[in-house]
Amino acid sequence: MKLQTMIWKELWQRPTPMLTSLLAVTLGVTAMVAIQNITVFSERKIAGDMESLGANVLVLPPTVSLQDYYSADMHGQTMPEEYVSRLALARMPGVENLAPKLCVESNVDSIPVTVTGILPQSEFQAKAAWQGLGLISPVGTDRGCCATKANVEAGANDPNSLAANRTIQELGDRDVILGQDLAAQLRAKVGDKLLVLDESFTVLTVLPSTGTIDDSRMFAHLHSVQDLSGAGPVVNVIEIMACCEDAAGSLITNLSAELPDTRIITIAQVVETQVAVNGLMSRLSWVFLSILLLVGGASIASVMYANVTERRKEIGTLMALGASRSFVTRMFLGKATLLGLAGGFGGFVIGTVVASILGPQLLGISVQPLPELLAVGMVAATVVAVAASFLPARRAAGLDPCLVFNDA
Fold first, then answer.
1. Phi, psi dihedrals of residue 221, rounded to the nearest 5°
2. Which partner for 340 in 29, 222, 362, 385 could form a disulfide, CB atoms 3.0-4.6 Å apart?
3. What range(s) does the ABC3 transporter permease C-terminal domain occupy (predicted)?
4. Are 320 and 327 in contact (CB under 8 A)?
5. Where in the chain are the domains?
């Protein structure tokens, strides 16, 4: 009888013990694949955010803690809008754009929405005291700064530029900009009228999807949000576009000196925190994999030893009929190999599905299968299954048919 036939019969006739013991191996691969998937795509999202945002700084109320750039204004604490004027008049080298924001909660057609007040660049241009500060410079002006400024200025006239550049040139007192998800939820399109904060607003544009919290937001003029919400002349955060590399070193010090009663955070600090969390998750995934593989290996070895003990007569009969010791060894190891491959593949599939579900819900990231994790999972599961089965297989191959039948 062929070796492959013997292995398949063995699997079909006694599947439960081995599949049960291999469950730990499958769970280990599942945990590793799910966590690694989320970690990898989270790091890619961070890199993309950094590339699109440039070198940015956040000015926050002093007691605010921050984990995510896009939710920097969701803490509920405020500071005077007058800080924006102070920063504009300070004429600090490297400050290319100021973007104050205020978030308030409201309802539109009984649907809860977050209304974010923003100040368009035209407001800076309209203030005589701010003229000539260099915050809004013509495209092509060479001030020794990186290309981020030019990119912001070039797209500022387009309302959709808010999605990528975090700034907009014009925004009327009764205009709103909707995130992609919120527009779908409200079934609103450009030109529609919405009742927001007890006033009628016109939808100026619907932003393209960004994969961030902005997709579920509504943006309106800062002063309109302040007046209608009764919050007064306050903001939650001031975003600063700081793209001059030669000024980056002293900018934070200058900002802290100008606004000592605020907290200054660089996007690099936020990214470092997120990278640290990703690194911890990645290490934990390998810890989970190692522990569960050890548990699975011990379970497989135990089942294999029990299988050899229970089937001594069958193994002795097989060897009496001419099966060599290497044939018996390869039969047990072949079964372990197939189960390891199946466990690795199953763990990869389950882990990828789990990551694709949890990624968007927990971190707002889209997760795709990573083929390299399939190879890692299958190799790890197979090596553990074969290693755990090696000694039981050698024990089975070392049985003496004569002694087996004499014991009977």
1. -65, 135
2. 385
3. 287-401
4. no
5. 3-48+274-407, 62-261
